[in-house]
Amino acid sequence: MKELLSGNEAIARGAYEAGVTVATGYPGTPSTEILETLARFKDDVYCEWSPNEKVAFEVAAGASLSGARAIVTMKHVGLNVAADPLMTLAYTGTVGGLVAVVADDPGMHSSQNEQDTRHFARFAKVPMLEPSDSREAKEMVALGLDVSEEFQTPVILRSSTRVSHSRSLVTLSGRAARQRPLGFEKNPARFVAVPQFARGMRVRLEERLARLSEAAARSPANRIERRGRRLGVVTSGIAYQYVREVYPEASVLKLGWVYPFPNALIREFAAAVDEILIVEELDDILEQHVLALGIPCQGKTVVPRIGELSPDVLLASRAKLDGKAVPAEARTASPAATGDLPGRPPVLCAGCPHRGIYHALNKCNVVVTGDIGCYSLGALPPLSRMDTLLCMGAGVTMAHGMDKAGEPRPVVGILGDSTFFHSGITGLLDIAYNRGASTIIVVDNRTTAMTGHQPHPGTGRTLMGDPSPRVSIEDIGRACGINNVATVDPYDLKNTVRVLKGAIASEEPWLVVSRAPCLLDVRQTLGPPLRVDEEVCRECGACLKLGCPALECDGGIPRVNPLLCAGCGLCNQVCPAGAFEVEKEVAS
Amino acid sequence: MKLQPANAETVPSLRQETTSVVLAGVGGQGILLASEIVARAAMLAGLDVKTNEVHGMAQRGGSVVAQIRFGAEVFSPLLVRRTARVLGALERIEALRQFDLVAPDGLAVVSSEMIVPVTVSSGQASYPADAEARLRSAFPRLIYLDAVEIAEQLGNRRVANLVVLGAMAGELGLPDEGWQEAIRGSVKPRHVDVNLRAFAAGKEAS
Question: Do residues B183 and B196 touch, judged by C-beta distance below 8 A?
Fold first, then answer.
């Protein structure tokens, strides 16, 4: 049976069919839907959202050492968090197959950087597979698990935004029977990476890498497509699809098993074509290797290293290589009709509880160290009230660093509930232990909102839908040694401002929990939509500084879009004239 | 080493036999559902199909674009600029924003809905007052309709996306039964009827 699946759905399907029994991860665009899809098979596959990627990776490693087939999913920056277990699991190796699915985000559609995960494969000396569509995504999960078991190594499956979020046709199969019996077999020389054992593991790691390179050269995941002799293109992942569109006449070395490099195959291909072009998204990893083999090639001279590739980008590369003008199709054609369109960036939703906190912070003269989640949108105008964003957890720790450096203004750190559980707790512990004075705000909307409402340790339920203890952020704060803990309702602006001003003025650290659920998650509004009384409105624009998408204004008196308004009433709280009133006839 | 310039025979013939479709709108308008329906209709017609859409921020009121490509064998999920046969847009300026993707002789089906972005409300930019005139000059083949009004008459303004799909369908040449089945397979059972009626109303309006 054929189905139209996204790359992420196909990866989940591949894990199910290949007999995976443990699947872990932390949500992150573009990887999130893998575990959400796999959790539909919860009778066969244990699935969990772990508090962070490091935890998720280690849980999967434990499952593997007991003999289970496991996958762990994350976005590219998640592997930074999970790098510690990856680097040494490469030494100890796996028992049951373990595939780490890591989704890169070239072009930074939804990420803070566009790091190229292929570096991690080389860094950790582990094999990497790279699918170019959903069919391959499904098949490569099984291949990865087989390779992991045969060579006793973790395997990285690298996806990207365009593979994860493109749909294509996939043939479905049934679920494979369990491959091996469960039961951990004690073997300290393999599983205990103390120096005396790790030195032996280090030698075996290099031996394994050499065997893997030979296997990669023989693997059907890597193939030569013979067409013309004049040009041979070496490519992998989604870039392969673009190459087929833009270079229909070229021979192609299509790499699906991208690391360790299949040297024998690269040499065979190079011998069969006159010229070689390397088309790879992001860094020049393959190009540098081909050059190191002594094979002349072109690559980043014509193919950009920044941002994602596309057929348009490759058409421009092709023209550049051929010494021709860029064809019309590949040029942006922006006539007067479209040149001055207003931007439509994502914004905090109408009724979003984060809006009240940012409005309150705008009443305080502070530096705000921010973090990663929906509340990152508070950095944009008109709220403009988040000053830094680095990585998960840095909203807490950078506040402490500025405070200890003697920053003249008070520093407030802000992060979400899921981010707090991910990596905020250790930072809070640091502030309490080292006697900092920052104020940390946890905007607790009771879900991992930005990635599409995944549960976490504070929500009281698991990915598989079971009830679980609802962890209290306030209790964690007190347990860390923060003595001043307050909870505010972010829709009560007056009280929120009062509490924040008190906390900021204090010489001691404060934890302020701003608690109100994400309205998209609970699918509720807070009240009937408001409307503007045009007799009362003074057109002062105070309400528009909230950046609410339900408040539309194209000059003159603002109006409320009743279909978007969630009835939170913040606009009326900030209106000096009290011009907002409840809409009499509520639209459906 | 420098590669020789390609001769005329080796210049790529962009895969004309592949049909490319673009859907555009604002997060929450149902672009992703519409994309799924087009893709299923193509699949049910026995064609190869690929789609692409960017998630993550889509629910947060930002611009949303989806691309669908179908034909005998489709490679890239992303189309080449100026090659889309049809653009379907659920908001005026979101249609203009995708001008660049549509073939010069392509069809644009645009709902006249106007959603003012926060960049305009907060005074950072202005919403073009002449959006309709711009649409008419940008797209020689334009179907400009009030999809929300038509959807409201059917009792559910949220099916404006299916009204636009219906108006696009004629240009795509996919069998009608496939569209019906794709709609049935993509929406909740209790919403099938109103979605089918919205699709039919869109076809009528085209």
Answer: yes
Assembly ipTM? 0.93
pLDDT tens digits along A517-573 = 999 999 999 999 999 999 999 999 999 999 999 999 988 999 999 989 999 999 999
- A7 and A73 housed in the same domain: yes
Q: How far apart are CA A201 and CA A193, in angstroms?
A: 8
Q: Which residues contact A524 (CB under 8 A, 6 or more apart)?
A: none
Domain co-membership, A157 together with A187: yes
Kindly determine whether residue B74 and residue A347, on different chains, have CB atoms separated by under 8 Å.
no
Tally of domains within chain A:
4
Sort A188 into a burial class: Cβ within 10 Å, 0-12 / 13-18 / 19+: exposed
Residue of B1, B3, B158 to mutate, interface with A, max A Cβ within 10 Å = B3
In a domain, A342, yes or no: no
Find the domain containing A566 and state its range: 530-587
Helix axes A83-92, A195-218, angle to 10 degrees: 90
pLDDT score of A588? 43
Same domain assignment for residues A99 and A83: yes
Q: What is the pLDDT of residues A184-203, one digit of tens each?
A: 999 999 999 999 999 999 99
Give residues 115 to 174 of B whose Cβ lies within 8 Å of A.
115-128, 134-135, 137-138, 157
Q: What residue spans of A453-492 are helical by DSSP H?
A: 473-480
* Nearest C-alpha neighbor of A296 from the set A327, A264, A271, A319: A271
Q: How many angstroms separate the first and last alpha carbons of chain A?
A: 41
- Which pLDDT band holds residue A400 (cuts at 50, 70, 90)? very high
Cα–Cα distance, A524 to A393 (Å, whole number): 29
**Domain shared by A440 and A387, yes or no:** yes
**What burial class does residue A384 get, using C-beta atoms within 10 Å of its C-beta: 0-12 exposed, 13-18 middle, 19+ buried?**
middle
Q: What tokens appear for A529 in the block?
A: 């939509």
- What is the CATH topology of the domain spanning B8-114+136-205? Pyruvate-ferredoxin Oxidoreductase; domain 3 (3.40.920)
